[in-house]
Amino acid sequence: MKKFMNKAESMVAESLEGFVLANERLVMFGSDRKFVRRRHLVPGKVAIISGGGAGHEPLHVGFVGQGMLDAACTGHIFTSPTPDQIIAAIEETDTGAGCLLIVKNYDGDVMNFEMAAETLAGRHRIEIVIVSDDAAAYGAARSSGRRGVAGTLIVEKVLGAAAEAGVGLVDLKQLGERLGKQIRTIGVALGGVTVPDTARATFLLEPDEMEVGVGIHGEPGVSRQRLADADAIAAMLCDTILADQGMRNAGVPALLLVNGFGGTPTPELYLIYNVARRLIEARGIRIVRSLVGTYVTSLDMAGLSVTLSFLDDETLRLWDAPVLTAALR
Amino acid sequence: MQTDRTLILGLIETCREVIAAHADHLCELDRAIGDGDHGTNMRRGCDAVYVDRDRLSGMPLAQALEKIGLTLVMNIGGASGPLYGTLLIEMGRKLGSNAHKTNFAAIVGEAIDAVARRGRSQEGDKTLLDVLYPVHTEMVRQSALVRIADTAKESAQLTAGMRAMRGRASFLGDRSIGHVDPGASSCALLATAICHYLKEYRPA
Q: A9 to chain B nearest CA, in Å?
């Protein structure tokens, strides 16, 4: 394993320090460096807080700033942040209008955010929006529901813009839940990831294999398949999304996000975007907004995800609203 | 309180040692059906408790259990932090409010139920509950410590036959079958180590 690092234990902290320095006009550390917050809070605005394990950057810290998040809590690599971090973030960024927590649907993340919210119940108004956009089919073998993956970016952008526009806590939660139902994502990997702590790949693939239905923690996906050409992979990904109930709204405007997992070059992302857009439009769905890039990552994983999100007038307007963060502006 | 001090210190050291000795193995188990960091995370939690051992061992047992639980929650992260943390926090709280009662098994049972609620999980989901519930059953039967330890080990092995319903392993569906659950494994290691310690500490 070759990594730019000193010690695995201090890697996340050292990287966050660099992130805050590089973006010092937008962000700063919160108390005890437990979280990264917007430099200038807006009094009377609902605070939008998210977080998760490290290794998904630029998610979530890269989306702290005007029009998106007020604070982001980062855990160890692929490990949820702890309740004390989330509690500190709420206490420091809730300016009186309450606080909305955006949580990816992983059991660890949900439990830690819930414990933080329970601890502060009565002292802060807190709502939680759980993002679960993964379209990979688990069948009956899973009771935790869908994972929250790249679609989280869309939820953070839209809810962040709504909060900035003065929307209240209860309405934000409703908007988040409505939007969440309109987003589906499917991921594919060409290799496992190397977690610095263990210095070993999470799973190994033969040169002619790919892993379909992966999440963003290097965990194996739903099935291992023979590697195909880009047209066939894009078709398989789009078919999976469009086969999902509620994802067949012909004529409805939609956002198409092709997201790299950290180890796939940008040209390949655009190549897949090109195929995916044609395939989806051939099904009568109008792609009116697009985003292509490396936003929600799984360390150095070679692979990508395709996200389709239907938009209505309100969510389209909020997607277009101004944003000034390290990773999206 | 002198008894509590020795007991608390002994348990903290015992748990830390067994996790440190098996951390790599726990990571290996986790790599098969998760992201491979269960041993690392558990070790971080146990180390944090160990660092605080002098303060913790000065507390009454109930309070120490609650504080150890909080320390685990604030240091482990992921799913294991809230689950192990909830177990100890609830045990401490229940013990604190029922100090006059001696039915420790009932207290443990209530704490395990709290873990199940926290994880929205039940027996058979391939989690640490699949060790906790059988261990609790043996405690209710007032089985010998050796028997409880054996049950913990056997129960962890049995998770290999289960399909994961919660946590990251559940994304694998049927592919999770055949692997021992890392959380159940760490739970069995801890239970076994605690039984062995108690046997030496309080020969009965």
A: 10
* Average pLDDT over all residues of chain B: 92
Same domain, A255 and A137: no
Tell me what pLDDT residue B19 has: 98
Name all domains of chain B by residue range, CATH numbers in brackets.
2-201 (1.25.40.340)
What count of residues does chain A have? 329
* Dist. CA B49–CA B76, nearest whole Å: 11
Q: Is the peptide bond before A60 cis (omega within 30 degrees of 0)?
A: yes
What residues of B are in contact with residue A147 (Cβ under 8 Å)? Answer: 171
Q: Please judge whether B81 and A112 are an interchain contact, meaning their C-beta atoms are less than 8 angstroms apart.
A: yes
Instruction: Measure Cα distances from A307 to A139, A257, A280, A285 in Å.
Output: 20, 5, 11, 13
Percentage of chain B beyond pLDDT 70 is 95
Q: Which residues of A touch B26 (CB under 8 A)?
A: none
Pick the catalytic residue from A56, A60, A76, A124: A56
Provide the ipTM: 0.92
In a domain, A1, yes or no: no
Could you list the residue range(s) of the whole structural domain that residue A78 is in?
A: 8-181+319-325
Distance CA A216, CA A238 (A): 19
Write out residues in chain A with pLDDT < 50, as ranges: none
So what's the pLDDT on residue A139?
57
**A60 catalytic per annotation:** no
Of B104, B196, B204, whose CA–CA distance to B149 is shortest? B196
Instruction: Tell me the C-alpha distance between A2 and B82, whole Å.
Output: 33
Q: Which residue of A has its CA nearest to B25?
A: A198
Partners of A325 in the β-ladder: A65
The set of residues, in sequence order, having a beta carbon less than 8 Å from that of A70 and lying 6+ positions away, is: A37, A38, A41, A45, A47, A48, A49, A64, A93
CA-nearest of A270, A251, A260, A253 to A298 is A260
Judge: A112–B77 Cβ closer than 8 Å, yes or no.
yes
Instruction: Note whether A200 and A163 are same-domain residues.
Output: no
Instruction: Specify the CATH number for the domain of residue A39.
Output: 3.40.50.10440
Query: Which band of pLDDT confidence, cut at 50, 70 and 90, is reported for residue B1?
Result: very low
Q: A56 catalytic, yes or no?
A: yes
pLDDT at B146 over 60: yes
Q: What is the largest CA-CA distance in chain B?
A: 51
A143: nearest CA in chain B? B165
Band of residue B97 on the pLDDT scale cut at 50, 70, 90: confident
Residues A112 and A142 in one domain: yes
* Active-site position among A40, A60, A124, A217: A217
Q: How confident is the model at residue B138 (pLDDT cuts 50, 70, 90)?
A: very high
Q: Could B78 and A80 be called an inter-chain contact, meaning their C-beta atoms sit closer than 8 Å?
A: yes
Q: Hey, are the CB atoms on B77 and A107 less than 8 Å from each other?
A: no
Tell me whether residues B82 and A108 touch, CB distance under 8 A: yes
Tens of pLDDT, residue by residue over B28-51, are 999 888 878 899 999 999 999 999
User: Is pLDDT at B128 greater than 90 in this prediction?
Assistant: yes
